[in-house]
Amino acid sequence: xQLAAEILSLQVAGKKVAEIGCGSSLLSRVLIxxxxxxxxxxxxxxxxxxxxxxxxxxxxxxxxxxxxxxEIMNIDHIDADIVFSLGLIDWLNDQEIDHLFLLGSRAHFxxxxxxxxxxxxxxxxxxxxxxxxxxxxxxxRPRYFEAEKMISMSSRHxxxxxxxxxxxxxxxxxxxxxxxxxEK
Length: 184
Hints:
The chain is α/β, with parallel strands linked by helices. The protein has a single domain (about 1-175), classed as Vaccinia Virus protein VP39 (Rossmann fold), CATH 3.40.50.
């Protein structure tokens, strides 16, 4: 989240920003403070949207923020200059990922995803997620993607050149973005 906040904060001044899978919308305040014109947060969880709305009121960002509880396939259009998601893609099927990229087809984007890597930490993550979530969700298994597949999926709907950003802090995660990246 910190890396995404750093990258986005450099780009949001005067822009409309949308976060899909916003949860409690922890980045909304940071992005509004960085000069975003507006922020819309969308999440499937009504409880998360309620928490985000309440937080926006206490942070005095209510005028610049809005929130919606919706499933991704029920979103028809997003009016935003920048669309981002953190931790969402790993939970979506290919059709939903395709829809995510279609929604942001005219916007710049930043999306995190778990990159397929042959590492011990990823094997531990697979086991943890299978136990922690798989038992609660009728066998959910985490998804891991190759960077080339993510670039290919995004380029079907968005003509902006995309790139992969990797950092040790992300462990086996990566960011797919059309935004300019800061120097490492």
